[in-house]
Write a structure and sequence with these properties.
Length: 580
């Protein structure tokens, strides 16, 4: 509203009436003064003009009021001059006093009128600001993205905005006829009661997540916030209600919670644990299962150096080593953990190593591999034992044909049975020494020459056999494996080749592949003489030992060539494989 429309002088008709009233007061005063001068005479004191001056100063501005005062003084002096023929000094003094009094009265009313106008302008300015604020509030109230409403302490909806109508499906007029409690799901009305109780006790604002009912009967999740001033602990008449639709957020939260439950179930079923290491601060956090794997009581977090008490010293660098990362990298290590009960457990840490907010961190899952490792070792031991038993059975099955062949090979010298017996026993003892060598601990070492000679010792003197080669020591399990290869060649030769033929010849030799001290060794077994058969079983245990179908027990690049008049077998032995 314009400030000029509120002022009396801004209305032409009102201003005219004011002038008429002032003129009538002035005319009445002048007539009264004339009559008073006639009947009162010199006793008139000009005081009858004071009420008129006050009335005119109230109605008019200071100019007209001063003019009216001077006019009244002049009329009074003229009336006294006409009736009495002269103006006394007392009359002049009264006239001057009246002019001064009229001026003071006019100035006083003028000043009061100015102050009143200034106050009106200030009030109008503030009223305009209040109206603008109210308009902005109404605009925001009506177009807000959240539902707004006002309710009294009885829960009656006094006012609501468009968004609340859209949320609930009610028109604004329909909402005005409802109570706030009606919109809340019956199962959540206790929460509404707690909100109201909170407002009435010690809070100016209170919020809770509740379900609200739509007009069609369906429900949606909303965050309901009640706000109110609390004078003297009593609810005010108006309570401000804010309704925020959180259905989507709630659905996402429920989905995340379900995924977390599934993840926890999967981790629990897989006996896995989660962990995280902040390498900058040296802080380790993990799930309860993670601390249980390490044999430590559950904790929210621990310092990294505290884990050094349970982690094997040789594996500690795997946990604390860090490097500058250009991008995210995988992290996969296995560490040994010494639990308080003294048992050593193998733990796998698998995850990612990355930078987060310029902080290097590792995070992932942990798994106890102890049982798996024990199972693997047991399986390997069982497989080795099975291989050894198979080897022993094969050697045992070959033993009797070898003994039979030895008996047939030894002639009775001059029908001397004792000499025959002694020679036969010597051959059997040599055979026994070879089998004892093969049955020794696999860690025993031996000279390559001794292994070959010991295996062929039972046949020397009766067959043409030559053994030659440089001095080479075979250590560890390689000696046993190599002795098995030589034994298999000797057994095969006794059954089918040169050792079974009185005219047969065997030449065994080995040489370095080059002059380099660390070069490989080339081993050769060459037979000449008639063979009983040119065929060989390629899928038996003997073929596996020689490497006919694949890799031999020791060495590499095996070659076997057979014909009706001989056999050649070669094998390369790595110096790194057989030892120094």
């Amino acid at each position: 509203m314009n400030s000029q429309s509120r002022r009396p002088d801004s209305n032409p008709s009102g201003r005219l009436l004011t002038h008429v009233a002032s003129a009538l007061v002035l005319a009445a005063t002048l007539i009264f003064e004339k009559k008073a001068s006639v009947y009162v005479g010199e006793g008139s004191s000009f005081l009858e003009f004071i009420p008129a001056i006050i009335i005119i100063s109230y109605l008019e501005d200071r100019g007209p009021a001063l003019a009216a005062t001077i006019l009244m003084v002049a009329a009074g002096l003229w009336a006294r001059s006409t009736l009495h023929g002269q103006i006394s000094g007392e009359d002049w003094a009264r006239a001057i006093l009246l002019v001064v009094s009229g001026g003071v009265i006019a100035m006083t009313f003028h000043r009061l009128r100015q102050d009143l106008r200034e106050l009106l302008e200030v009030a109008e300015t503030r009223l305009a600001a209040v109206e603008a604020t109210e308009n902005r509030y109404r605009w925001a109230f009506e177009r807000a993205a959240m539902g707004f409403a006002n309710t009294n302490e009885r829960g009656e909806l006094l006012q609501s905005n468009r968004r609340l109508s859209e949320m609930t499906g009610y028109e604004e007029e329909e909402l005005a006829q409802l109570r706030l409690e009606t919109l809340v799901h019956p199962d959540d009305r206790d929460a509404l009661a707690q909100l109201l109780a909170g407002l009435g006790n010690d809070s100016a604002s209170f919020a809770s997540e509740v379900r609200l009912l739509k007009k069609n009967g369906s429900a949606f999740w909303a965050r309901l916030t009640l706000s109110s001033s609390v004078p003297d602990g009593v609810l005010s008449e108006s309570i401000f209600v804010v309704v925020d639709d959180i259905s989507e957020r709630r659905a996402v939260h429920e989905a995340l919670r379900a995924q977390k439950e599934w993840l926890d179930l999967a981790l629990s079923a897989g006996r896995l644990a989660t962990w995280r290491i902040d390498l900058k601060d040296g802080i380790v956090t993990g799930s309860g299962t993670f601390w249980d794997i390490l044999g430590l009581p559950p904790a929210a977090s621990r310092r990294l150096d505290e884990l050094s008490a349970v982690i094997h010293p040789a594996d500690w660098p795997k946990l604390v080593a860090s490097r500058k990362l250009a991008s995210v990298t995988n992290y996969d290590v296995e560490i040994r953990v010494r639990r308080p009960d003294g048992h050593i457990r193998w733990v796998a840490l698998r995850g990612r190593e990355e930078k987060y907010d310029d902080r290097l961190q590792r995070l992932g899952v942990a798994a106890d591999l102890t049982e798996r490792r024990q199972t693997t070792l047991l399986r390997a031991a069982a497989k080795k034992r099975e291989r050894i038993m198979l080897e022993q059975r094969h050697r045992f099955s070959n033993l009797f044909p070898v003994i039979t062949a030895l008996v047939n090979m030894v002639d009775v010298p001059e029908n001397n049975v004792a000499r025959y017996k002694e020679t036969l026993v010597d051959r059997i003892r040599a055979l026994e020494a070879t089998h004892l060598l093969l049955s020794r601990n696999g860690n025993a070492s031996g000279m390559l020459h001794d292994l070959v000679v010991q295996e062929l010792q039972p046949y020397m003197g009766t067959r043409d056999i030559s053994v030659s080669g440089p001095s080479v020591v075979i250590s560890g399990g390689a000696a046993e494996s190599f002795a098995m290869i030589v034994h298999e060649l000797a057994t095969n030769s006794l059954k089918h080749g040169a050792l079974g033929d009185s005219k047969g010849r065997i030449e065994v030799n080995w040489t370095f592949a080059s002059e380099d001290a660390g070069s490989d060794i080339v081993f050769e077994w060459v037979e000449s003489g008639r063979r009983r058969t040119s065929k060989v079983v390629r899928h038996g245990f003997g073929s596996m030992i020689l490497g006919v179908d694949g890799a031999p027990l020791v060495g590499y690049s095996p070659k076997l060539e057979m014909s009706d008049h001989g056999l050649r077998y070669s094998l390369r032995l790595s110096r790194k494989e057989i030892g120094p």
